[in-house]
Specification:
Helices cover 33% and strands 23% of the residues of chain A. Chain A is α/β, with parallel strands linked by helices. Classes of the chains: A alpha/beta (333), B mainly alpha (122), C mainly alpha (148).
């Protein structure tokens, strides 16, 4: 059912029946190490390149999530996956191994919410029964693509964030036990003229604020309807900006706002504003937050991974950074 | 004592040049390639107006080891080429004078890239 | 919601800043130290080959410093120095070596010709191009002046 212009409420609610998260070695030393299903000892996984390693990690996360749900690979109707590499090769190469009907997605670091959102539509329409939603990112493959060679001696600027090495996968089903997806709001591309690619949090916060406002307005809910408002990788500074943007509209989320990028690393790990990357939100959500739901710590949550949709070339051409954020409303009955 | 003073001068001038670079990074968020180009051009300018030599007399490696020295070498070479061979010498001289730096960087860069692979960072 | 102009102001005002004094101090310290190593290389050269001229001494120093920068990059130490030193390890000629070796190493998985050789100058290319152009420009200016 369509509510307002951007929000959809699902009559037949899709259920997240399992989640699995693979974390890199550095992430495995962070705040959430006890929650990850698998922590890699070697982030190259014995592969020749970091791209191959990322793909292997992504494949492993999807396969493990399917097994954890007690399903067979051939029972999955569709896999929806995305990552940060050019032509989303990490996802595609996983799909090549799995041989599941595949829809590759790209919304930068918010791809995970895009996959949850589309999967929800397909399941509630009654056409599909099981769908996997997954994303991955890898520090070493993202660094060479978006920033510098690994061995170049540069300093992180104070607002920079550290790309998370990790992959998370959730299996959505038309029935079963677990967290239900109640409604979703499709975000608009919002650009607040930030050009500094080392200040992604600030670039993405306005898109996130816009989607939160729209979601609350169109569902007629208040921010305190939710136990938690979970953002993807705004980081320390982006989170602060999001809270200030919403504050200026009289919405106070500070007491219930959690950010995956802010939570994943310890302060002593020298990551400046925290973690980022497509794998950040999927990893933390599929492990830590699903556990929080399971233990009853959270009953209702709004989940908003955020994505910055620039390319290296567009930044060099002086373009500002467009950003997007989709909202997924989750309810555990 | 003499040698100690000389090294102190090298240290002070070399350190000061790098401090200026850091100030540029902090104030303008310049990336390393831009920093290197900026300082190289400063070196070219210092050589062109003839200030480089007196600084070099005082600071030695403090000014020749920073990329400023590389810039000054290029200009020195182009000017030497001009005085010896005329207009064509302008084209010949620059890289000739800087060839030690460029060729060794290519050689060692190639060797290292064959021997080592880049590692992930933590 | 806050508009773009206001937001730009807010971001500028509230963004965390570099720890100015600390970064400057380490840039000075490590940059100065690298230059001293260069001076020492020159001194040792003079000890070994007393008849070495000033030009050759400079060339030998460059080669040795570039070798050191390349080796430290190769074994994965130079970027760690760079984390602390900032411009202190970018501005010296060893930083030039680092900017050539690091992309070459990064792309060795893409092959020798199209990986190592073609990517070697993705960072350092502008340095050589701008340097050569500047030297030609200065030469031309001297030439024009000499005509009068």
């Amino acid at each position: 059912m369509k509510l307002g212009k951007q929000t959809y409420k699902f009559e037949r609610k899709p259920i997240i029946i399992s989640g699995f998260g693979v974390a890199g070695p550095k992430e495995g030393e962070g705040n959430l190490k006890d929650y990850f299903d698998k922590i890699l000892e070697d982030d190259r996984l014995g592969e020749k390149s970091y791209e191959k390693a990322e793909s292997e990690m992504h494949y492993f996360a999807i396969l493990s999530a399917i097994k954890k749900a007690g399903l067979e690979v051939n029972q999955i109707d569709c896999m929806m996956a995305g990552d940060l590499l050019n032509q989303i090769v990490s996802s595609t190469f996983s799909a090549r191994e799995l041989e599941i009907p595949y829809l590759g997605l790209y919304n930068a670091c918010s791809t995970f919410s895009e996959s949850l959102l589309l999967a929800s539509f397909l399941i509630s329409s009654g056409n599909m029964k099981y769908i996997t939603c997954s994303t991955s990112s890898h520090f070493s493959s993202a660094e060479r693509l978006y920033r510098y060679p690994l061995e170049l001696g540069t300093q992180m600027t104070p607002t920079a964030q550290w790309t998370v090495t990790g992959s998370g996968c959730c299996v959505l089903s038309s029935s079963g036990e677990g967290v239900a997806i109640d409604s979703a709001t499709i975000g608009k591309v919002v650009d607040y003229d930030i050009t500094d690619t080392n200040n992604m949090g600030a670039a993405m916060a306005p898109a996130c604020a816009d989607t939160i406002k729209t979601h609350l307005l169109e569902t007629g809910r208040n921010a305190d309807y939710y136990d938690a408002i979970i953002t993807g990788d705004l980081g320390i500074f982006g989170s602060q900006m999001l809270e200030e943007l919403l504050q200026s509209d009289g919405i106070d989320i500070s007491s219930r706002h959690r950010d995956c990028g802010k939570m994943i690393f310890r302060e002593s790990q020298k990551v400046k504003m925290g973690g980022s990357g497509a794998g950040c939100s999927s990893l933390v959500f599929s492990t830590y937050f699903l556990k929080q739901f399971e233990e009853g710590e959270i009953k209702k949550a709004l989940f908003l991974p955020t994505g910055a949709l620039m390319s290296k070339d567009s930044s060099l051409q002086g373009e500002t950074i467009p950003a997007i954020s989709h909202a997924i409303s989750l309810i555990k009955e | 004592m003499d040698i100690f003073l000389r090294y102190l001068q090298v240290f002070a001038v070399g350190g000061f040049v790098c401090l200026l670079g850091q100030l540029l990074i902090n104030l303008t968020k310049m990336t390393s390639a831009r920093i290197l180009v900026t300082f190289l051009l400063i070196g070219c300018l210092l050589e062109a107006v003839g200030i480089f030599e007196p600084i070099e007399k005082f600071a030695g490696a403090g000014i020749t080891v920073p990329i400023i020295g590389f810039g000054s070498n290029l200009v020195k070479g182009a000017l030497k080429g001009f005085s010896e061979k005329g207009v064509l010498g302008i084209l010949l001289g620059g890289l000739q004078a800087a060839s030690a730096g460029v060729s060794s960087a290519i050689l060692f860069g190639f060797l290292m890239a064959i021997i080592f692979k880049s590692r992930t960072k933590t | 919601m806050i508009d773009k102009q206001e937001y730009a102001k807010l971001v500028k005002e509230k963004s965390p800043k570099s720890r100015e004094i600390k970064t400057l101090f380490f840039a000075f310290l490590i940059g100065g130290f690298i230059c001293c190593i260069g001076e020492a290389v020159g001194d040792i050269t003079k000890l070994i080959i007393p008849e070495v001229g000033k030009v050759t001494e400079g060339q030998i120093t460059s080669c040795v410093m570039i070798f050191l920068g390349s080796l430290l990059t190769g074994i994965g130490i130079y970027d760690k120095i760079g984390k602390v030193a900032g411009a202190g390890s970018i501005v010296p000629i060893t930083g030039f070596a680092n900017s050539i070796v690091s992309p070459a190493m990064e792309y060795n998985r893409e092959g020798v010709v199209l990986g190592v050789m073609s990517r070697m100058f993705v960072v350092a290319g502008p340095i050589i191009v701008s340097g050569v152009l500047a030297s030609i420009f200065v030469g031309l200016v001297y030439w024009i002046i000499s005509l009068f």
